[in-house]
Amino acid sequence: MRRRKFYIKTFGCQMNELDSEMVRRMLEERGYVYTDNPDEADVVLLNTCTVREKAARKAKHLVRYFSKREKTTVVMGCLAQQEKENLLKEGADLVVGTRAFVEIPDLLESIGRQKVVCEDIGLHYRVDREVYPGQYSAYVSIQYGCDNFCTFCVVPYTRGREYSRPAGEIVAEVRRLDAAGVVEITLLGQNVNSYFDGRYDFADLLMMVQDNVKNVRRIRFTSPNPRDFSYKVLKVVAESDVITPWIHLPLQSGSDRVLKRMNRGYNRSEYLEQAAMIREMMPFGTITTDIIVGFPGETDEDFEATLDVVRRVKYDGAYMFIYSQRPNTPAAFYRDQLPYDVKVERQRRLIEEVNRGILERRKIFVGREDEVLIDGPSRKNPSESAGKLFNGLTVTVKGRFRPGEFVPVRIVGISGLTLKAEPLKVEATV
User: Fold this and answer.
1) 192 in helix, strand or coil?
2) CA of residue 252 relative to chain centroid, distance
3) Which of 99, 324, 353, 401 is the most exposed place for a label (fewest CB within 10 A)?
């Protein structure tokens, strides 16, 4: 009997990437065979995102595309949570809410050609995961959902209210991954620094995780929210030899007026104080951010306030988005929406300012020695490898090295905004 093949396309955040990994493992346990060619697949799973309109449109297009080709089409993720019935009309066979993906294998066995919506059935999380051959990096979810209700964001409506996994359960999962040879772990949550399981907070959890690993040499986390960021967490990171000194600190806007309309829960001064504290405690650490341009009612003065924060902080990286109305969010109903051409022009200016700061920051790393965790070959130059420094910055290294290998290097220059490095007395292994 021929085993059914399946394909997974993942949109959006790292939480979705981890959910896709879990579904892949569960289907393989049931005898399904994974393929990276959707044309060969009997079942196509689309793990969707609604944070940006483009990703939602693309997912709907793929639902129609695969449905017409008589693939069993499964939609999971945030779009599935938000537009269940609409996705069935688009041609989906199975639509699964964000907290019900563990039901997918059973549902595939039972639906036949009947179209099914699986509502959320509560939080289910599998911790008996295995490491794939060659896998050196893994995600671990520590917290789900969000209670912040920023006016532009759909996450509280698609992922639900906050829930923190028990610290002991997280540590047990980390220890299994560590024993399996994983060398890098990323702790995930919609708002990791609001983690609290009734006894331990996020700083406590970080210390517990770092004290329970032997093979893991890098512990990362994303994403914190400035409103909940604490000195206690920063102190743990700054004093650790394993937790990477990379802080993703979403700004969204540098204007107090806009931040209040966004319901972000912090102001400009508080944000700048946090950024200054990070720079003081971790001079060679990194700060990355998210910024929205063109939020409803954003004036020229508001936008200039954002540029001013960018100049002061000098980010090491940034995700910059044009505001788009997301269904059912309060900001979607604001009447003072901005013209698209105004938003595009502001994004152009923002990118230029951010890049100036990035380049200035990159220069302080030239001449330093560090260690690169190799991700694979460089996309632009096959004779080089690409990887990340301990602080998360991307670097290209002369020579071909295996993914998951640690290579001591010296930073020798900058190409565009990417650091260039040479290995220190290490020969290429590929």
Assistant:
1) helix
2) 16
3) 324
The pLDDT, as a whole number, for residue 121 is: 44
Q: Which residue has the higher pLDDT, 227 or 54?
A: 227
What's the rounded Cα separation, in Å, for the pair 330 and 338?
A: 16
Alpha-carbon span 393 to 247, nearest angstrom:
12
Distance, in Å, from the CA atom of 20 to the CA atom of 9, rounded to the nearest integer, reads 8
| Confidence at 83, pLDDT banded by 50, 70, 90 | confident
Tokens of 69: 């080709």
pLDDT score at 86: 87
Q: What distance lies between CA 66 and its chain's CA centroid?
A: 27
Identify the pLDDT of residue 192.
95
Say which residue the tokens 């996020």 belong to: 202
Tokens of residue 79, six digits: 């779009």
Question: Average pLDDT for residues 289-296, to the nearest whole number?
Answer: 98
Question: Could you give the CA distance from residue 243 to residue 221 in angstroms, rounded to a whole number?
Answer: 9
Query: Sheet containing 286-293: which strands, arranged edge to edge?
Result: 246-248, 286-293, 317-322
- Tell which wins on pLDDT, 107 or 170: 170
Domains of the chain, earliest start first:
5-118 (3.40.50.12160), 134-244 (3.30.750.210), 248-364 (3.30.750.200), 369-423 (2.40.50)
Count Cα neighbours of 198 within 13 Å in the Cβ-side half-sphere.
Answer: 4
The stretches of 112-247 forming alpha helices (DSSP H) are: 155-158, 167-179, 202-210, 231-239
Residue appearing with tokens 């604490």: 230
- Contact (CB, 8 A) for 254 and 282: no
Task: Report d(CA 249, CA 226) in Å as an integer.
Answer: 6
